[in-house]
Amino acid sequence: MAYDYDLFVIGAGSGGVRASRIAATHGASVAVAEEYRYGGTCVIRGCVPKKLFVYASHFSEDFKDAESFGWTVGDVSFDWAKLVANKDREIDRLNGIYINLLEGAGVRRYDGRARLKDAHTIEIAGETVSAEHILLATGGAPTMPDVPGIEHAISSNEAFHLESLPEHITIVGGGYIAVEFAGIFNGLGRKVTQLYRSEQILRGFDWDVRHHLAGEIRNKGIDLRTETNVTAIEKTADGYRLSLTTGETLDTGLIMFATGRHPNSSDMGLETVGVELAENGAVKVDEWSQSNIPNIYAVGDLSDRIALTPVALMEGHAFADTVFGGNPRKPNHTDVPAAVFSQPSVGTVGLTEEQARAEIGEVDMYKSTFTPMKHTLTPSEEKTLMKLIVDAKTDRVVGCHVVGPDAAEMVQGIGIALRCNATKAQFDATVGIHPSAAEELVTMRTKWTPPEAQAAE
């Protein structure tokens, strides 16, 4: 049977655009459908605008620190509307770049929501086309809990377009989005309360990272309350009144929920075609990103493997090489570096201590907590944490975790070392860059002993 396209991609985010471009360079006829803007969550309403907001929020501390380095800073003020406008201009530019990349590769664009009619037929805004292969790459969306008054709350999507910032902002959640926005709003001079239902923020991260960051967040003035959740939201004359699981109430000018995201798989015709979905709506795929329907694949957050932009890029590229490039390869989800642009930031790669002890058994720990050189002159009490986890039997470094300035920049390089199975001896043999915080990663020599073990010695 002749099809209109060799490949039809639904969703023009990171994974969808990469797969479209690479498949086209392999000679495939490709089309992509996007109902909103090109670039996906990361570029439009995720990591890119959020990182710009993080940069903006850092200036409040920089102005304070400048005096310790001999600078006299005069009166300063902040214009939220100007920041939002400048951010929007940059997002517009990136949206245009993604469109140009697709058009330059010869990919046909369809603007509108795409739905599957059958395993090879797609409908977009009343137009029907066919494709031999279909790639689903529609990403994820914020999950809002079923709480009375939830219509008064916003998600991270709306946070990028607020007309103004109230004096008191409450954020519900303990994941990276919640932590990052708490730091942003706090740095922009707002009073911030962060509520999290469990015992500690950043579930799934190394315990030392979670504990250390929570302390730093509180030291910066954020009212972080763990084991606390919202049971109801009431509109008041001045804002909102929150009923809490502790029995207290909390008045706030804005409430934002960052309580997780879910795969964006609804209203796409997947059930009609028979694409198998997980309980949370994720498209179930095998190690080749293939669904139970042989010609339909899924990548990125929709497949709910690792919800990171570079992972979606990797999955989309591997799919295109496999199906159209004559180079079968699986995306590798091992030792994927990640960052949280909290304040201070977090960089992590490999196993947490908890995972290492469960999977490996005998492990050696190397930990260091110190004042960054910048703050030896400032009044700041911020501390940097660095931690290496080593397989005691093979000496291989299996985990690295950093909390402090430029953590992501450091851990990107360490991610290469872990992929190369570097040993602690090789870390030790590497000459450090002085003076830098990163040199601590190659100069930690003393194994960390738990306090209870020290007491028994």
Keywords:
5-stranded antiparallel beta sheet, FAD/NAD(P)-binding domain, 31% helix, 7-stranded mixed beta sheet
Descriptive account of the structure:
The chain has 457 residues and is α/β, with parallel strands linked by helices. It has three domains: 5-142 and 262-324, FAD/NAD(P)-binding domain (3-Layer(bba) Sandwich); 150-259, FAD/NAD(P)-binding domain; 338-448, 2-Layer Sandwich (Enolase-like, domain 1), CATH 3.30.390.30. It contains 13 helices and 21 strands. It has helices at 14-25, 40-45, 47-66, 80-104, 156-159, 176-187, 207-219, 270-273, 309-324, 353-359, 407-419, 424-428, 451-456, and strands at 5-10, 30-34, 108-111, 114-118, 121-124, 127-136, 140-142, 168-172, 191-196, 223-226, 230-235, 240-244, 249-252, 254-257, 261-263, 296-298, 338-340, 346-350, 363-370, 384-391, 397-403. A hairpin with a 2-residue loop joins strand 4 (114-118) and strand 5 (121-124). Helix 1 (14-25) packs parallel to helix 9 (309-324), helix 3 crosses helix 4 (80-104) and helix 3 (47-66) crosses helix 6. It is globular.
